Target: YdeI/OmpD-associated family protein
Amino acid sequence: MPQRPYSRERYPMPEDVAERLREAGLSEAYEARPDYQRNDYLMWIGQAKRDETREKRIAQMLDELKRGGIYMKMAWDPGD
Model:
């Protein structure tokens, strides 16, 4: 099934988040996620007002990528 064009604003990958993905060995897991998930994670992390909140969001993203089958605390089937 062909992918639909992505029409929402795209958020850039902050270098520190890219580094955390590399350090955790999760860059491939991140890239394997659909465009909307990658973009949502970056938007959500970028909207944090406090450093502590931003760090918690990065940690959640890394945990979900490591565990697989979960996205924003919801079950996710990669076959969808």
